Each structure stands twice: as C-alpha cells, then as structure tokens.
C-alpha cells in the first residue's frame, strides 16, 4: 500500500460467518474503491469471518467478551483496540453484542450497523422468523447509524425482498443476506465519498436531510 493511500479506513466488527465482511473486502479490492478494510475485530474466537480477513491479508484480532468481567470493561478494551486501527468508519457486520452508551458515543457519526429487517420493524433477534409469523409481504435489511438505542439509530438505506408463499426462515434469510451484500458496500462507499452524515439525529445525504431511508440498490 502506498504512503499516499487516502482511502477511508474501515474497521469491521463481526461475531460469526462474516459474509457481509466478505462483501466489503471484495468491494474494497476494486481499483475505484474509496475505502479499504484496515482491521477486523471479532468477539468470538475461531469464526469464519476471521479466516476471511486472514485470506485477504487484513489484520484481525479477537477480543472475547467472556474474558471481561462486565460489559463496560469489554467495551473500553474494544474501543481502544478499534482506535488502534485509526478508522474513519466502524462497521458492525453481524456483530452480536449490545454496546454501551459510552462506546456508541465515542464513535458517534462514524459507526453503522446492518440489521436484517426493514427497521423500525423487527428490531432485535430472529427477524426472519418474526417477519414470517407476522405475515408481511415484504422483508429486507437496513443500514443505520448506531445510536444508544438498540437497532434504533437513523436509517440510511434499505433493501427490500418479497416474502414468498413457501418461504421458511432459512430461505428468507438467504434471500435477505444476498441483498445485504449489495447494500452494505454501497453505504460504506457513500460514507467514504463524504456524501453521508449524521447531523441533528438525522441522516444527511449530499448536503440535504433525508425524509426516509434511501432504497438500495437499483
Ligand atoms: C446478517 O444477516 C446481519 O444483518 C445480521 O447478522 C448476519 C451476519 O451475517 N446482524 C444482526 O442480526 C445484527 N442485529 P454475516 O456474519 O454472514 O455477515
């Protein structure tokens, strides 16, 4: 990497398979990418996402939450570790930990999360199952700025997929996940191009506040 590399430095936090991480790594490989992944942190050892980082030559670290006596102590160590990569943006990509207000505040306006539902619908866990149980015709995923409210920060963009008659949880989850892999790199590109901003608890895009989430990715 040249000393004049001015692409946005992105740190990705994961807890598992890391297919969204993979989508970011792949997008960052394109010569025109405005960002690069400079570090990956997992709160679980031995997960597939760590292999993906290694295969890509991206430094990765494990910070196992079970080694810490409480959430605040873990988050303090996590913030220090993330800061050591000097990121311009922190991306939660399947990072299955609730973060303290202090951590969120530290990265305010420069941390986004991908969530597998059309927020504000289905915050929390088991989103696909709950969407099926609710009988919705459309489901999807959202990328939002992270605030202290769990899955409650201002939504930047969403992808929508149909819910089909014979869907089970796994089939629906796979349909959503494939679209997540388009949504997340797109939002990170926008942020890297300085088109996105969190201001006054709202999402601003190209200098204007959004009325609602943008739709991705036509
Ligand atoms: C993705 O579906 C992501 O939206 C979800 O976990 C999965 C991670 O997959 N995140 C959440 O549920 C956060 N609340 P991946 O590890 O293959 O990217």
Overview of this protein structure:
This protein has six helices and eleven strands. With 218 residues, the protein is α/β, with parallel strands linked by helices. The chain folds into two domains: 100 residues, Formyl transferase, N-terminal domain (Rossmann fold); 92 residues, Formyl transferase, N-terminal domain (Rossmann fold), CATH 3.40.50.170. The mean pLDDT is 97. Strand 2, helix 2 and strand 3 form a beta-alpha-beta unit. The chain has an eight-stranded mixed beta sheet, with helices on one face. Helices cover 32% and strands 25% of the residues. It binds glycinamide ribonucleotide (GAR).
What is this structure's SSE topology?
Elements: E1 8-14, H1 19-29, E2 35-42, H2 48-55, E3 60-62, H3 71-83, E4 89-92, H4 101-106, E5 111-115, H5 127-134, E6 138-145, E7 155-162, H6 169-192, E8 196-199, E9 202-205, E10 208-209, E11 214-215
Helix pairs in contact: 1-6
Features:
25% strand; three-stranded antiparallel beta sheet; alpha/beta; single chain; Rossmann fold; 32% helix; eight-stranded mixed beta sheet; 218 residues
Helix fraction, binned, reads: 25-40%
Question: How many beta strands in the DSSP annotation?
Answer: 11
**CATH first level of the largest domain:** Alpha Beta
The fraction of residues assigned to DSSP E strands is: 25-35%
C-alpha Rg, in Å?
17 Å
Provide the list of bound ligands, each named once: glycinamide ribonucleotide
Trace the largest sheet across and list its strands: 3-2-1-4-5-6-7-11
Mean pLDDT: 97
What characterizes the major β-sheet? Answer: 8 strands, mixed
Spatial shape: globular
CATH H-tier superfamily of the largest domain: Formyl transferase, N-terminal domain
Low-pLDDT stretches: none
SSE order in H/E notation? EHEHEHEHEHEEHEEEE
